[in-house]
Amino acid sequence: MQPIVDTAPALAAITARLGTLARIGLDTEFLRERTYRAQLCLVQVASGEEAACIDPLALAQLAPLAQV
Q1: The whole model's pTM is what?
Q2: Cβ atoms of residues 57 and 41 within 8 Å
Q3: What is the pLDDT of residues 18-62, one digit of tens each?
Q4: DSSP of 2-67
């Protein structure tokens, strides 16, 4: 488990684990200051066994997360 997910391999690993579960928790945080649209700046995911913060600003894409 890696609590901060900021690389594509780390994102692939956590989504592979979470994708096997029946239920997960998900929370998002957006930055709205000085912008006309909200910018996703943090995704928090958790299962009964692990929790992690996904940094969408450090990742080129979040497509693996959409599969979960």
Answers
A1: 0.88
A2: yes
A3: 999 999 999 999 988 877 889 999 999 999 889 999 999 999 999
A4: -SEE-SHHHHHHHHHHHTT-S--EEEEEEE-TT-SS-EEEEEEEE-SS-EEEE-TTT-S--HHHHH
Give the per-residue pLDDT at 32: 85
User: By the 8 A CB rule, do 42 and 56 touch?
Assistant: yes
Rounded to whole angstroms, how far apart are CA atoms 50 and 1?
7
State the Cα–Cα distance between residues 31 and 22, nearest whole angstrom: 30
Other C-beta atoms lying within 10 Å of the C-beta of residue 13: 16
